[in-house]
Structures are given as structure tokens and as C-alpha cells.
Amino acid sequence: MGYRLETHLDKDLAPFGGETFNKCFNCGNCTAVCGLSKEDTTFPRRYIRYMQLGLKDKMMESIDPWLCYYCGDCSDTCPREAEPGELMMSSRRWLTSLYDWTGLSRLMYRNNYMHVLLMTVMALLVFLAFIVPSNFGFGLLAQHPEAMETVMLEKFTPVETVHLADWLLAALVSFFLLSNAGRMVYKVMKGQKASLSAFLTQLPRLIIHGVSQKRWKECDKDVWKNWIRHIFLVTGYATMFLLVVVFLQDFQVNDSSVHFTSYFGYYATAALLFVTMWMMIDRLRMREQSAKKSHATDWSFLILLFLVALTGILMHLFRINNWPMGTYTMYMLHLMADAPLILLVVPFGKWSHLIYRPIAVYLQAVKEKAREQRVGAPSLVTG
Amino acid sequence: MNDAQINQTTAESLSAAQNPKVREKRPIDILRERHGGMSPEMKEYYKEQTRIKQLLKEALARGAKTVPELARECGLEPSVTMWNLMAMRRYGKVVEEELRGEYYAYRLKEVK
Amino acid sequence: MDEFKKRYDGLVIGGGIAGMQAALDLAEQDYEVLLIEKDPSIGGVMIGLNKVFPTLDCSSCICTPRMAESVHHKNIKIQAYSEVTSIRRHDPGFKVTVRKKPRYVIEDKCIGCSQCELECPVDVPHEFDHGLGARRAIYIPHGNAIPQVATLDVDHCTFCGRCAKVCPTQCVDYTQEAEDVEVDVGAVIVTTGLNITPMDAKKEYGGGHLINVMNPLAMEAIQASNGPFGRPLRPSDGKVPRTIAYVQCAGSRDHTIGIPYCSRVCCMYALKQALLLRHYLHDVEITLYHMDIRAFGKGYEQFYRRVMNEGVNIVKGKVAKITEVENQDLLLRVERLDEGGRLEERRYDLVVLSQGLVPAWQGKGVLDIELGDDGFFKSISPKISPVLTSAEGIFVAGVAAGPKDIPDAIVEAGAAAMEAAIHLEGIGYREQVLTASQS
Ligand SMILES: Cc1cc2nc3c(=O)[nH]c(=O)nc-3n(C[C@H](O)[C@H](O)[C@H](O)COP(=O)(O)OP(=O)(O)OC[C@H]3O[C@@H](n4cnc5c(N)ncnc54)[C@H](O)[C@@H]3O)c2cc1C
To answer: What ipTM does the predicted assembly reach?
Structure first.
């Protein structure tokens, strides 16, 4: 099979953060120092080679960047300071933009103005939704002066409306995310012979890895720190997702009373605030390799997530202290931060890795299985 | 030189230092005084070395041995055994004998 | 030349191969030269090498005659075990202070009989063998040492006084003290040479704590027939090594250890050592891991081919990690680029790190001349006359000016001697000094 050479790949990659690949002289130190690099899946050196040669198709077929957890050992020890870890990171951004068929991802990653603009527009739309209609938000509130005396969310954001919107949003996001994931699977498996049974038997891995992220323990450095942070983040956000999308009827309390679901909310809030602050501090201190370079999208992700958690808990506090105006405003701000996060960052931005990473581990297993099934076929070692 | 001898020389030099009339200060005492004598680490080093050499000598007196064999018999680290054995070899106390598997055996050199 | 005069035409700092060559070339033109060497013997790194690439000549067989020639030359005064502590400009030349360190042995009376060394009760790790072998607290560094006299290392002395008792010429003098002497010189040639990259520079390679990860100069020592073990053996337990790995660029071309430059000689010395080990050891497997082989000199590429043909495995791939496993064997992890990027984890009996060359001396507080980015003395005219430094009358040659091999060091030393001679003529050093002393 022939491959097309992209002669301007360097220019294409630069906005994603991948500028240093030309420093690499292919000594293989990064691959050998990496705890995740295995006999038949060796990275990052091979992938960086593709970058140098302009083998765009090869890069798109490859899942290597998703298998990297950026412990930074390779960058720490690279004799050429080519920063292989950062090259893997920027490749993840680049791949995200290529899996996405809408073009939004590419727009956001390549253009910081567009990135901020899109997020602002999203927040403004939410703002308008609270201002313009007469049966929702401030329009509804205007008709119910009693709701200014004491908290009555029913007279501000009727739970059915919000719930419906949540479902719509979830459906929309899933549609984008899954269609992009489908494109990823297609690109990676194109031309690979794998039987249906190979796909089916390996399915459990998708779930196990998605939830546990246990591959992390094979890294050599900062294993616990990174793993714990991600587990908090995942469980925190999953809890919030369930509360809002499935149990909103219970979770959104109308008056200033406390429902037991709030306790789950406390956990989620604490986890999200704690982890986002920790990560932001790391990025400001720039000590670890993975925190030395930050793309604008890394920041927007952390800041939005932090704001969502912060406004959420403030709204809760205002509500149980029966401060109506504070509660309503926070509710609106909460959704203004949440909308860009859910609609942009999850399907098109940094957070899409929540699905691409497990899929990558899964596809790797599928490929291995398929290889086993093809008895006598040459191994892909030299791939 | 064994410990007793060292102590004796120290005692000699001390008496010499304290009682200059008895005996004139020897040049070696001048050197020792200028350098504040042996450092505690050096004393420890020397004592340990004397002990190791003695152990190796006794073990080799019972027959030629390789480094791992010697180390096991004397309860020493193989690397420490190796270094001290090679020091003995260099100063003609020990000679190399036949190859046993992957290791050479060494024996004490007979003194004629 | 025996006496220490008050004035010399040239001062050479560092008595390695470059320093000796520079001193000889100046002396041959009838200039008087003072050569200062910090170690007990002259000879530098070369006298500690086993054989030299690409000819595989015995290194000491070439170096010793040079040492003897220098010490016997009527125009050269060799002052070993001494250091230059200050150099001030003093027209027309320089005023130099030399500190003679006390050997506690009267050099002129010592006949090099080794009686003291044999009598001394304490064994000390020997610098000449890079700690693998032993010397005594009073010792003659090695059989080819020049001057062939004993030196007492007080830090390891037990003060038993026996060396003085057994000395047949009564040359042990415990009362010696360091002595500062002043001399006038007209030109200075700096040939202070190299150290290898410190063994603890890279923690991925064990940070200097793994006993069977060897430094290449120590490997030279154990290959030599007068080496500390008498034959190449493993330092940890005396095993005859069956599998040996060379790790290239272990101490240079690596930004992470602050040594981005190529040290130029490591590929060649590693190939040389590997080939010789194939000759010395029966049934040994040697693998040399490299980023690329730089066989840059005349006859070097042919040498590289020869080493490959004689069965040394040459593998492209930079070793990323060395870990100690059972029996103090070593596990190497490397991506083999010669096999399409296969990850390899292999166990070896012995590993040699091809450490790079770093400057042995940067003149701190003594010599006020510019250094290059690499830390070596800077040549202000690298193309036209590489031996010129930022200070007039001070020249540099050999590895002091940057990594190079012996032939290049020798050529450069000759050039430095020539420039120094031109400088001495230019300032009319001898005439000026003569008139000054007459008036
Ligand atoms: C492991 C190894 C193997 C090698 N094998 C080969 C080979 O086979 N062939 C080849 O061509 N090259 C080889 N080389 C390179 C070779 O060793 C050098 O090119 C050569 O030794 C350089 O000589 P030099 O005189 O410049 O420096 P050096 O040999 O380092 O001499 C410098 C001298 O200056 C003295 N000195 C340092 N500082 C001071 C001071 N402040 N005051 C007074 N004196 C001082 C030192 O004690 C030393 O004696 C090898 C190098 C290594 C590390």
C-alpha cells in the first residue's frame, strides 16, 4: 500500500503544539525509557518518525498517542530535547481534530480567538435563554413576585424543562462524540482484517479501561498522583452527570431544604474543585514535563470545569440559606459555564479523550486478538 | 601490623610528645601532629581492612578458592572480597590458579 | 634539566601527551621550558590506555619514550606533583607562582626501589586503576611513572613510620611542606586535558552506583596486562564476562546532562576496546549500542568495518535504562532501530559507559582566559590558528581546547609550540630579560 507524503505537516502540526519533532534524530531513547511501550506497540519514537516523514495517513491510523499517559520520562531523558511527551500530547489534539467531522474541533485547536469566541457564544445563548422567554428564567420569575421572597426554583427553572433540555443535550453530545469515535475506529481498523469475534471478545476491556484507567500503573513516574486525580475527576463528573441527567427530579430541590442526593453532589463538587485546582497549580508551577506546556484548550477545560463546580456549590449554599436572587443568578452562571464545557469540550475538545483512550486500548486488544486468530501470519513487529 | 602494634606506636608517640626531654620528637610524629592523626574514618577503614585480609588469608590457607567461594566462606560481599584479594595479588601475597567454570581460583603464594 | 631556575621561556601546564609534545617542540628550538604536572607522574590519560586506535599500538610503548625524552631533555624542567596557583602579566612576560606539593620524599635521592611501598601496611584504591586496584599509602604510581619516585598520601597514612625505616637512601622526609616558588616566563601553553563525564551524570544508568557498570578508562586499565586484575574480569565478583555491552553517547550529545557536544573519541575507543575484548576473552559476546557511529579519522572507517567483521554486534539504539538484577548482572532496555524498532531487554555481565570528555581544568582563579560554550578553553581563531586564546602569549592545545584524539592533540601541541616561539621572538623575550637583568 502506498502512502501519501504531506510536505507541510510541520505547519499543520504547529498550532497543536507539535513543533519539536525535527529535533529528533531517532535514537529510540524515548521508546525504551517508556514503561508503557511494549514489544509490539512501541512509541513515541516511531510516531515521531511518521511526523518527520509527513506520513499523515500512518499517523491517523495509529493509536499510539492515546496509549501515552504523559508521565514525561521520555522528555526528561531525551538527549535532543525534542520533547517526545509533548509531541504525543499535541498529536492527541491533532487526532481529535481529525476524528471530528464537523470541523469545530480543528477550528478551536488551531485558532485561539475562535476557541474563545465559540465558548462565549455558547454562554451567551444560555444567557439569552434565561432572559428572553416568558416561561423560563427571569421572564417566568417576573410573573411570580412571591419567588423573590423565598427560594422557589419551580418559578425560575421548572424542573421538567431543565430535564428535557438535559436529555436533549446528552443526546446531542453523545451523537457527536459517538460519531467521532466511530470515525476513529474506522480510520484505525481500515484495511485491518479483524473478525467480529475479535471485536466482541475484547469488549469488556473498553469498559474496564474506561473506568479504571489501570494502564496507568505501568508508567514509571507519578503513577499514583495522576491516577488518583483522574479517578476523582471521572467519578466526580460521572456522579454529577447521573444526578443531573437521570435523577434531576430529586436533585433539583425547589425550596431551601436538603435532599439526600445533595450528599452525592458534595462529593462531586469537592472532587472537581480539588482536582481542577491541583491541576491548575501544576500548570502554573510548570515543574512536571506534562505541565510545562499548556495549550489554550488545556486552560479552558480546567477553568470551565472549576467554574461549573464553583457556581454549582454556591448556588446550593445560597439556596439552602434561602437567598433567592443569589440562587437564581448562580443557577444561570452555572449553566453558562456548563454549556460550553458539555457542548464543545466534551465532543470536540480535550475531554473527548474520555472515549478515545479506552477505545484505543480496546482496538489494540482487538488487533492482537485478530493476529492470534490468523495462525501463521507474520507478526506486526516491524509494522 | 596488628592493633597491638598500632597502639604501641601511638603510645610511644604520645609519651614522646608529652615528654620532650625523654626523647627528641621523631619526624613521623611531626607529620602526625600536623595532620591531626588518622581520621576516625581512616581508622575504621584500616581496622576493617586488616580484619578482611586476615579472613581471606585464613580461608586461602585452607585451599585455593574463587571470589564467590571466598566471599561465602568469609561472610563478605563479593565485591569487597574481590578488591582485597586483588590488592593481595598485586603485592605478591596471592596468585591466580586455574579457571573453575566462570571464575578463576586464587591461592596463597608460598613464602620461600 | 635538574635545577629549578628563576626564569623560563615557556611554561607548559599539564604533562599529558599534548603537554609533552609542546614542551619538546619548544625545547628543540632551544627555548627553555618549565612543565608543570599536578599528578605524581606525567603521561596524562594516554599512559593509562592499553592500546590505541586505529593501529592498536601499545599505548605505553609510544607514550613512555615521549615521557623519557621530555624528562631528559636539557631544555626541559619537569615539575610534577605541582600546581600553578597564579599567573600575572609582568612585561614582557608573566610572573607565575608554582606550588610544589609535598611528596614527603626527597625526589633527587629516591631511586624508585619500592621498598617503602612494599612495607606500607595499608591498601588504598588506586587512582591510576580508577579505584579497581590497590596502591599503598606511599607508592610509585606505576611502572612507567616519570619521575620514578615515591609519593606519600598523608590522608591514608597510618603514621607508622616504617617507610622511612626501610628506605635504603633515607629519602623519606616527613617534615616536608608545600612550597611556593615564583618564576618568570615569556609564554604559556595550556594542555590540561580531560576528565571523563562523571559516572553519576545519568540516573537512568545507575547514577554511578552499579559496580558492574564501568567507566571506559577503568576498562582500559583492566585490559592492560599490568592491570589491577591481571586480565579482564568483572569488578563485582571476578567473573570472566561472557556478555558485555557498550553504551555509546552515555556522557555526551545529551542535553539532559548539559553536554550537548560530541566527544569525538568515544565511538573509536569503544570499538577498540570491544575488538580487544574479543581477542582477550574466549567465547564472549559484545554488543555496542549507538545513536550513530562517528569514525571520523584516517583509517577509522576501515577500523570500524574490521570490528564488525570480527564479530562485535553493532546495534543502533540508545540505551534508555540500566537496572541491576540478580547476581549484579545488568538489564538494558533499548529500542533496536536496526530491527524496525523492536524493544529489547537484555541481560549483561558487564556494561561499559562510553563517557564523554569534559575539561579537566578551567583555570578558575588562575588563568583569566575565555571559555567556550562547551566549557573548554576558547580558541579565538578556530580556523586560522586554533591554538590562540583570548590572552596574548597564552596558547592552548590538546583536549584542553576541545575533545580530540591523540594524533590531533599532538598536531595541535606542535602548532602551539610554534605560535609560542613566534610570540617569544616577537616580543624579544630573551633580549628584554637580558637588558633588564643588566640594568
Ligand atoms: C577511554 C579512552 C580511550 C581513549 N583511547 C584513545 C585511543 O585509542 N587513541 C587515541 O588517539 N585517543 C584515545 N583517547 C583520547 C586521548 O586520551 C586524548 O586524546 C589524549 O589523552 C589527550 O591528551 P592531552 O594531553 O590533551 O590531555 P591529558 O591526557 O588529559 O593530559 C592532561 C594532563 O594535564 C594534567 N593537568 C590537568 N589539570 C592540571 C592543572 N591544573 N595543573 C597541572 N596539570 C594539570 C593532567 O594531570 C594530565 O596529566 C581515549 C580517551 C579515553 C577517555
So the answer is: 0.94
